[in-house]
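JOB MANIFEST
job_type = single_chain_structure
chain_count = 1
residues = 139
[input]
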Amino acid sequence: MRALLDANVLISAAIHPPGTPGLIVAALLERDAFELVLSLGIVAEVEAALKLRKIRRYLREPDEALLWLADLAALADLADDTGRAKGVCRDPGDDAVLSAAIEGRADLIVTGDADLLVLEEHDGITIVTPRAFLDLLRV
């Protein structure tokens, strides 16, 4: 199963590893439970967030967070945002996530973003919450 993890999922995983997003990343790292799809845009968004003072204060080891992200990016299949999903989302910034998922041949997009979740599916790609994805991994 190929899953694109949205930036909000990765940021949440970095902030609170025992939470649902953190458990998803742990399933990837410890059990190779799914194939990770990311885009350079998602990696850049997470990197920028992890450098913010308001985020860094929540990180257990702020200096390690960027190394953690680099490790995830190295494990991921990095897909391009080719613009194939222009005008799909009510938030135009989320079209890049859809495009990367299409290009990365993802089966699922895992996100907490309501603008993506409202779609439920696009171009054969199911869009789910982190909780729903974790439940899939536990089956």
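[summary]
The longest helix spans residues 62-75.
Helices lie at 7-15, 20-31, 40-51, 53-56, 62-75, 95-103, 114-117, 130-138.
exit_status = 0
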